[in-house]
Amino acid sequence: MNACLFETFSERIDSLPPEAVLEAAAEERRRLEGDLARGKLLSDEETDSILAFCRFLAGAIHGSMIWPGTMPMEHWTFYVKTVGRLVAAEQLPPGVKKDIEAAFQGVFCCIMG
Known about the structure:
This protein is an all-alpha fold. It has one domain (about 5-110). It contains 5 helices and no strands. It has helices spanning about 5-15, 20-35, 45-60, 75-90, 95-110. The protein starts with a helix and ends with a helix.
C-alpha cells in the first residue's frame, strides 16, 4: 500500500505557488502512470485518487472535467481547497470551482444520506 503517497503529494502541492501547481500535477501524473506501467507501484486508493485529481486538473484547463465519485473525504477536502486556490490565482477558470464543489457536495450527501 502507498499509505503516505497522498500525504507527500498534498504537502508538495501546498508548498508550491499556485502558478506551479498545474505543472507539478502533470509531472506527478506522468510519474505515477509510468510507475504503474512498469509495475513499480500498485494501483490502490491513494494512487487512484491522486491520478484522478491530476487528470481532473489537466481536463479542467481544456474544459473537459471527469471526476470519479469515490475517494477518501480528506482527499476531497484537499482537492476542493486546491482548486479554490488555483481559481483565485486565475490558473483555472472560475466555473471549475463550482463544478468540483458540486461534485463534492454530491459525494458528501451520499455518504451522509
